[in-house]
Predict the 3D structure of the following.
Amino acid sequence: MFIGREKELSALNRLYSSDKFEFAVIYGRRRVGKTALISEFIKDKKAIYFMGVESNEKQNLENMSRSIIEYANGIEADTTFFSFQAAIEYVFALAENERLIMVIDEYPYLARSSKSLSSTLQMVIDKNKDNSKLMLILCGSSMSYMEDHVLAYKAPLYGRRTAQMKLKPFDFEGTCRYFKNMSAEDKALMYGIVGGTPQYLLQMNDKLSIEENVKNTFLDPVSFLFEEPSNLLKQEVREPAVYTAVITAIAEGATRMAEISTKVGEETSVCSGYLKSLINLGIVRKETPYGEKSSRKSIYNIEDNMFRFWYRFVLHNNSIIARGAADLAYKRIEAHLSEYMGKVFEDICMQYLWKLALEGKCPIEFQDLGRWWGRQAPTGNTRSKVDEDSESVPAPKINTHGSRRKDIQMFIMGEQDKNTALFAECKWTNEKVDAGVLDLLIKRSRIFSYSNVHFYLFSKSGFTQGCIEKANALGNVTPVEYKDILLEYGV
């Protein structure tokens, strides 16, 4: 089943239609659907597909030769080209008079087995590209390798590519397409549990309940997802145990560097290196309060929902799951699902606001969108630092009236200019949002000195009549129920 990726397919087809040499680089983390995208693209076209393997140069050359000869002659053959240069030049010759695609999947495996391959490829491209109709696609799951050794300025292949795609997991809208038979609430829960990675989505059944899906996957020792995070880390990093400790610390609520370091039992300088690797893998993200480029208030969150769910719930229940007590494990998980979904719902709401902005439907044309947290600044100049610990002056204009410092919890904001901004609050609860939530958001917004503001209230379960009446009276408040987001997406 192939769903989505319309933009990526359209971009690849535009390259294909040029009828001249094209060189596309496609990369992204494992399970994100790179090979599925390429397979969908080439299914009705003349193409040579070859996947590199973790082996030596001889084995990879034999495999590539077999793929090329089978395409050229339509039969299996034992013939092997004497070098990668000869093999690639032969493909260029095949593409002199007709459009031909050559895909080299898992390029890092191939390039590591032959250290001179990138330079050889550069030479052959430079020699033949002006007289060829070849469309070359290099694909890789090792994002650091692809960025450092294929796309980087000092890489031999720099300047040869005509396009590059960093494939990411689906957003909430794209994820919903996989679960057409699920209820509105279950679609959000499923996004919170498995995220938008296609390979994980395919493990779920939209005709079953959330409980049944979780039990059949995360709580079943023979399931693909039961050990997926630990298996993936073993493929990507050298010290998976330490990385597991870092991710677990974040999943348990240790989001600041000092807290993570204490939990893991390593120096902050050591943890910093692990966190950087996890960010590069797309598993963890670093956040600073909106408008601050660098701050000691930075926090770390788990970017991938499947990892977040697994490390929050599955790892701790590993022993009872292994003993077959799926019912007990799910009972423990279910008690905390609503709390867990709070941050997921924030992400869904931010994606919705971006959609409105990009379509010109948002009253505030914000330049960026993010979360803000910190302390109300003490009495002083209006453009003073938000917090004494900040390392840079944030973009938002702070209103510093008042003499006492007060912790401000996280909320969403986006600035259009120095006078105009948007503020939003999100509530994933079974109770309707009342006017008190709106009052608190308005109060929090006053630590900034914007003269023109608009408020968004997002609610899973709707709003009280008092809240709706107050929003209507103010005129600069947009209440959005979760079901309205789905209607906007048409899912």
The longest helix spans residues 337-358. The chain has three domains: 6-166, 210-335, 343-489.
